[in-house]
Specification:
- By secondary structure, this protein is of the alpha+beta class.
- 26% of the residues lie in helices and 30% in strands.
- The protein has six helices and 13 strands.
- The strands form three sheets. The chain has a six-stranded mixed sheet. A five-stranded mixed sheet has the order 2-1-5-4-7. A two-stranded antiparallel sheet has the order 12-13.
- The longest helix is centred in the first third of the chain and has 18 residues.
- The protein is globular, with a radius of gyration of 17 Å.
- The protein starts with 9 loop residues before the first helix and ends with a helix.
- 26% of the residues are buried.
């Protein structure tokens, strides 16, 4: 995400965002431009969306694209700057969607959130973003992180005493999302994705 400078209220951000051709996330008064995506990232997102749409057909839950914003923060007050407005790579909502306002472009009740990791966003997705998701979105039952350089899906599920992590790292493996009765097969999630060699991964980390 690009670096932000000025402080904006939530309503100022939403007004600017709705008129913008580019996407920006909002964190406590600051607006950050979102970076473009790699080919692998794009393929994984399409594969996830296809799997979720097919498996949720006829069920009370539905998948929403990466253009749907999610609000994570306290109750909005006039001239408020507190909170996170973010774009997840894929969101599942169950039952009737609830929105920030009449524009219906900011979701308040996500059930499952998917994030495809990249080098520029991984720390945020694992850290502050997940903290805000689990703190402010009481409807969130599952948070799923998908690597793009290796076959790896990490699945966090809400428990009465915290969050439980389960990971699948075999391309022949699968992941059950019990809350929405869906199963993700890694071979489908990573269809057409070409993983970098171990040497390339090591160079990227250094």
């Amino acid at each position: 995400m690009g670096r932000a400078q000025s402080i904006y209220t939530i309503e100022e951000y939403l007004r600017l965002e709705r008129a913008s051709e580019e996407r920006h996330e909002y964190i406590d008064g600051r607006i950050y431009a979102m970076a473009g995506e790699s080919l692998a990232h794009s393929r994984i997102c399409i594969n996830l969306a296809a799997e979720m749409r097919a498996q949720l057909k006829g069920k009370p839950c539905e998948a929403l694209s990466s253009n749907m914003k999610v609000r994570s923060g306290p109750t909005i007050k006039r001239d408020s700057t507190a909170g996170l407005f973010s774009y997840a790579d894929l969101v599942v909502v169950c039952g009737e969607p609830r929105f920030h306002d009449e524009h219906q472009d900011v979701l308040l009740n996500p059930a499952v959130i998917f994030e495809v990791l990249s080098t520029t966003t991984e720390a945020f997705d694992r850290g502050d973003k997940f903290l805000r998701y689990r703190t402010w979105n009481e409807t969130l039952t599952d948070y799923i992180l998908v690597a793009q350089t290796v076959p790896l899906i990490e699945h966090f599920t809400r428990q009465p005493d915290g969050w439980l992590l389960y990971a699948v790292s075999e391309i022949s493996g699968s992941l059950l999302i019990s809350s929405i009765e869906c199963r993700l097969r890694l071979i489908e999630v990573y269809d057409r994705v070409v993983f970098p060699s171990p040497d390339q991964n090591e160079m990227a980390e250094n």
